[in-house]
Write a structure and sequence with these properties.
Blueprint (H helix, E strand, L loop, with lengths): L1 E7 L1 H4 L7 H12 L5 E7 L3 H14 L4 E5 L10 H8 L2 E2 L2 H11 L12 E4 L2 E6 L3 H11 L3 H8 L19
Parallel strand pairs: 1-2, 1-3, 3-6
Antiparallel strand pairs: 4-5, 5-6
Helix pairs in contact: 2-6, 3-4, 5-6
Length: 173
Amino acid sequence: MRIAILVVSDRASKGEYEDRGGPAIQAWLEKTVTTPFECERIIIPDGFESVRDTLIDLCDAKAFDMVLTTGGTGPAPRDLTPEATLAVFTKELPGFGELMRRRSLDFVPTAILSRQTAGIRGKTFLLNLPGSPGSIDVCLMAVFAAVPYCLDLIGAGYIETDPSVLKAHRPGK
């Protein structure tokens, strides 16, 4: 199982800001996923082309099973992660974004401004996450139970979770 964590941030890519989103995603995966996995963290600047081109490379050339992005999902002018991600998908899975926003609204009213989405490209599952570590945890807890079965359906690597943290759902099991 190969997982890429793509951090999208102008400031973090320049070293002006310590990325907290990427480490939060990796820590969440390490406590939840029981299947051995390889994780690579990449930090790039905001922007449509930078995100699109990096996602295509991670999916097509590097063949990651899953790409989790953090950052660039708000309404600011440079927040273009969802637009770039949509340009990469072969299929969008809008339910992921809908549920992440719904769950996040239980904690913060500005969650309605978030524009995360999910989808697939070939045999890679892609998921946009917010930049805040607390929001990352809320969002992953909301949707990750469906991720292992999604990976099964698209022919990506197999993944299992620790049921004491989050039970993966596979129909008929």
